Amino acid sequence: MGVKQAAVVGGVVLALAGLAGCGSGDEPAMSAGTVLEQGHKQFAQAASVKITGSESDSGQKMTFAVSAAAGGDCTGSFDFGDQGKAELLRSGGQTLFKEDERLLARLGGDKAVAAGKDHWLRIKDGDDLQTVTTFCDLKSTPVFGDGDWYKDVASEGTATVDGRKAAGILATSSKDGSFEGYVATDGPTRPLRVESPHVGGSSDGTTMDFSDYDAPVTVSLPPADRIIDLDSLKQS
Questions:
Q1: Mean pLDDT in runs of 10 for the chain (236 residues)?
Q2: Which of 13, 113, 149, 169 has the maximum number of C-beta atoms within 10 A of its C-beta?
Q3: CB 33 within 8 A of CB 41
């Protein structure tokens, strides 16, 4: 997809977290480690999560919205600005990616556009776009997913995220680096957001917001004649 994504755009990395109470001095504050532990637990128990956000890199910005089930099924959309748009489906271990004409042209010119228009690309192990599947794997989400984030976590105070009171932390993984994360403190301690720290005023990085916990994720796959392998498209 000429894509790039926290996954396809570079590997969706983020961070999560939490800290103190809700800001009313009457409420006890949680340690950064406790906030991370509670957020991780809630994320791991979720049947599904909707992830919306953006990825910016060297002036290029992508926005996305993905609904992912704990079992790996997912559906989503990606907007790469003037570069094009794409859709994602994953069910039963099969991953499909549908690019618009602008993205297809970047992938393989006019021949790719002719062969791939109105078709879904089947993504297999080893394909260039395989990393897009990280959006469907909740365990790969930085901080809230699996990893060694608990080894280096610090409090970032309290904040308001989409109208919700939240505790913030800065968590660092030996693999993915540092990310700021926020966990709700005005209800279930669910993760609300993870984002890259903006160092030196840079706007590059990833932001992911989490919502619609446990909502049904329904994936309807297209008919077989609307699906082609990515390799065959690139060879057309």
A1: 36 29 47 93 96 89 96 96 94 92 89 90 84 89 87 93 94 88 94 84 86 96 92 67
A2: 169
A3: no
